[in-house]
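Now read the record:
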Amino acid sequence: MRLTNVLFKKVKSKRIMVLMESVVSGHQFNLFRERLADKIELIRFDPYIQKESLYRERKRIRSA
């Protein structure tokens, strides 16, 4: 193995894309957050019920 192969590491992204899902209706959208941050919960307008509702992070989609 050459020295150059030893020095190169795969770089991880600082941000990841996560799937946010409404607790009330199941409406979903994608959002970016920092990799080391806590899971996100936020209140946002839900087009299915035409009111604001709580959205929770459901799963991680990919690195960004």
Observations:
- The longest helix spans residues 3-7.
- The mean pLDDT is 89.
